[in-house]
Structures are given as structure tokens and as C-alpha cells.
Amino acid sequence: MKPVVYIDGKEGTTGLQIFERLGSREDIELILIDEDKRKDTQERKKFINAADIVFLCLPDAAAREAVALCENPNTRFIDASTAHRTHPDWDYGFPELSAAHRAAIATSKRVANPGCHASGFISSVYPLVKLGIVPPDYPLTCSSLTGYSGGGKKLIAEYEDVNRDPRHESHRIYGLTLKHKHLPEMTHVCGLAAAPVFVPILGDFYKGMASTVMLHNRLLPGAPTAQDIHAKLADYYADQTMVNVMPFGGEEPVIYSDTMAGRDSLELIVCGHEEQTIVTALFDNLGKGASGAAVQNMNLMLGFDETTGLTK
Ligand SMILES: NC(=O)C1=CN([C@@H]2O[C@H](COP(=O)(O)OP(=O)(O)OC[C@H]3O[C@@H](n4cnc5c(N)ncnc54)[C@H](OP(=O)(O)O)[C@@H]3O)[C@@H](O)[C@H]2O)C=CC1
Ligand SMILES: CC(=O)N[C@@H](CCC(=O)OP(=O)(O)O)C(=O)O
């Protein structure tokens, strides 16, 4: 029997991208709710309880509600929302972080899919902390450029409106309260003593993300050079397929934030010299930042090849 899969929130940005990746697969049975009942709680409850895997592509409150509707002990969730990312009963869905993360996801009934900006930050910082290169109390800073699809249907409509504010042509800094909703998972997953100073920046392009972490090498134990840090990260991710460390300094003297649009893998680019290092995670906010990562987690949970249906 094929595993039964349901996407709750299929008409949203993340849901549609998951559907795109699963629609033609013959190794699963995708069950589809009637369009006019997609927000009907009783109907959603039936679908949730009939599925082996449920993707939640919903606002946080609706994601919590969906989990509460589940009475089937065999139903397994992959939640794309922020609702459960630091919840102790949920496993964080970033398999490349460690063998323990991958093993936990494979058998988990509750997987929290990482936030997009958080994926960029954590892909750099988790291994650096684990390897002892960055102490947990180091004062980290990060800027993160994103395409507007990261804000879902509402932000897409705002950016694609013919009568939009003409200032949307320029990049805009947001998260000015310094309380961005991804900070708890960045801090928790990396085991940091304090949240990083985090500056998200929204650009006038549909999808793509470049999250840059900045380091003063002399403040790190043993004062490693940027090349040393590159070598450690390259070694850490050497066996991974969907996270790749690029040659030192990257392939060009500049980094375009939409380079990975349409792909499900993530590239890390390390630049710098003796004094300073930057590590940039380059990926698609809808790929490794959301739907691609969610499908990778599903593959792992069902025992399929992790990259089935994904674009490297
Ligand atoms: N966009 C991105 O890059 C990323 C998004 N996420 C997260 O994924 C989740 C979904 O985001 P995104 O796809 O961008 O958001 P969208 O707004 O594009 O989609 C959300 C979908 O959920 C539907 N919905 C809302 N309430 C309910 C309900 N009670 N029952 C059923 N369906 C409901 C909406 O319906 P309607 O169409 O009528 O509005 C919409 O189709 C969010 O939690 C978001 O934070 C995570 C990582 C990245
Ligand atoms: C451009 C934009 O607004 N992006 C969203 C993050 C999108 C994302 O990762 O969503 P969740 O954490 O909700 O899953 C933001 O910065 O709040």
C-alpha cells in the first residue's frame, strides 16, 4: 500500500510548491480535499486522520488546530509554520545538521520544518558552534536577503499589484523591532546564549535567499582564518547532497540572492581573510527554505531516497 499524503493549505504558496513536487509521484497516494471544503474543519479532520503524512502549510494558529484535530496515532505531521519549531515534542527538520537530526526525523511523528531565514543562519552557525569554532556566547550578527514569496500570498499580491507603492523597487529592511519570528529557533537549535542581531531585507524578486553571518576571527578561540573556517565547514558537509560548501571565496566576486531560485539545495559560500569571515547561505526560500525541505523530510520519514522529486 502506498503511503497516503495530505497537504493542508495546498492553495497557499508553500502548499502549492509541495503539490508541484508531489503531484506526479507514483510512490505515494496524494489525497485532495474539495476546493470549497478546504477550510471546513470537519472535512479537514477526515483528511488528516486518513493520512500517513500531513503537510501543514497554514498560519500558525491553523497549524496548531490541525494537530489538535488528529486522533489517528499513525498520522505523521510535517509543519511548515512557526508553531512547533522549538517545541520539545517536535523534531527539527534539518537532516544535514547531524546524524542525530537525520535519525530523529526518519522515525518522527512530528517534524517542524525550518523557517527560511532560520535555515540560512542555522546551516552556517550550527556546525560552527558544534565544532567549537564559534562559542555559544559569541555576539553573532546576520543579514538575510529574501524574495517576496517568503511573505506568502499577501506579500506576493502587494508586490505584484500594478498600483503598488513605487518604493517597492528598492530593497527594504524589515524586522526593525529586532524580534523576528525566526530568532527563537535560531537560538534554540544552535544552542546560543543569546539571539543574534538579525537584519532581514526584502527585495523586488519572487524567490531566492542569501543569509550572511559575520565573524571577527580574532574574537574566536585560536583566531582561525577565513580559509580555516571554510575547510572545517567543507569537511562538515562533505557527505551531504542538499547542502554544499562552495570553493573558498565563491565562484564570482559578487553573490546574487536569487542564484538558487528553483532549486532545493543550499550552497554555503565562505569569504574573508585573516581578520574577518562571512558565511553566506544561498538557497531558494521556497526550496530548502520551505517546500523542498518539507518534501526532503517526507522522503526521509517514508524511507525513500531523500532527494526523490527534488532539484539539486
Ligand atoms: N512562503 C515562504 O517562503 C515560507 C512560508 N512558511 C510558512 O508556511 C506557512 C504557509 O505559508 P505560505 O504558504 O507562505 O502562506 P500563504 O498565505 O501563501 O498560504 C496559506 C494558506 O493557508 C490557507 N488557510 C488559512 N487558514 C486556513 C484554515 N483554517 N484551514 C485551511 N486553510 C487555511 C490560506 O487560505 P487562502 O488561500 O484562502 O488565504 C492559504 O491558502 C506559514 O506558516 C508560513 O509562515 C515557511 C517557510 C517559508
Ligand atoms: C519576506 C517575509 O516576510 N518572510 C517571512 C518569513 C517566511 C518564513 O520562513 O516563514 P515562517 O517562518 O513563517 O515559516 C518573514 O520574514 O516573516
From TrEMBL:
This is N-acetyl-gamma-glutamyl-phosphate reductase. Belongs to the NAGSA dehydrogenase family. Type 2 subfamily. One of its GO terms (molecular function) is NAD binding. It catalyses: N-acetyl-L-glutamate 5-semialdehyde + phosphate + NADP(+) = N-acetyl-L-glutamyl 5-phosphate + NADPH + H(+). Residues 4-105 form the Semialdehyde dehydrogenase NAD-binding domain. SMART domains: Semialdhyde_dh (SM00859). NCBIfam families: argC_other. Pathway: Amino-acid biosynthesis; L-arginine biosynthesis; N(2)-acetyl-L-ornithine from L-glutamate: step 3/4. Keywords: Amino-acid biosynthesis, Arginine biosynthesis, Cytoplasm, NADP, Oxidoreductase. GO terms for biological process: L-arginine biosynthetic process. It is found in: Cytoplasm. The lineage of its organism: Bacteria, Bacillati, Bacillota, Clostridia, Eubacteriales. The keyword Phosphoprotein does not apply.
